[in-house]
Amino acid sequence: MRSLKRQVAARDHGCCYVCGGDGADELEHKVPVSQGGAKRDLNNLGLIHSEPCHREKTAREAAAGARRAREDR
Ligand SMILES: [Zn+2]
């Protein structure tokens, strides 16, 4: 995982793929693995700020998941 993060950091120059700012400190799946995203595909990996970008993305995904769950019923 560490080497994947290095590769993504080099490709994206340390920029967060959500807000475009630099200094992103976490590696994150753009499409969650739980939603069919590729786990070790660099194209599905991006750097993200743990705060606030990752937290907000997780909240959005949780809300989307809740919507889908309601629609499935
Ligand atoms: Zn960010």
How is this structure best described in words?
The chain is mainly alpha-helical. The chain has 2 helices and 2 strands, in the order αββα. The chain is flat, with a radius of gyration of 13 Å. The model has no long low-confidence stretch (mean pLDDT 92). The structure holds zinc ion. Zinc ion is lined by residues 16, 18-19, 21, 24, 48-49, 53.
Poorly predicted segments: none
Count of helices? Answer: 2
- The ordered H/E elements are HEEH
Main β-sheet description: 2 strands, antiparallel
Share of helix among residues?
A: 40-55%
Characteristic key phrases:
flat, single chain, two-stranded antiparallel sheet, mainly alpha, 2 strands, 73 residues, 47% helix, binds zinc ion
How are the SSEs placed, and which strands pair?
Elements: H1 2-12, E1 26-29, E2 45-48, H2 50-72
Antiparallel strand pairs: 1-2
The structure holds zinc ion (ZN).
Give a short overview:
The chain has 73 residues and is mainly α. The chain has helices at 2-12, 50-72; strands spanning 26-29, 45-48. It is built from two helices and two strands; from the N terminus they run H-E-E-H.
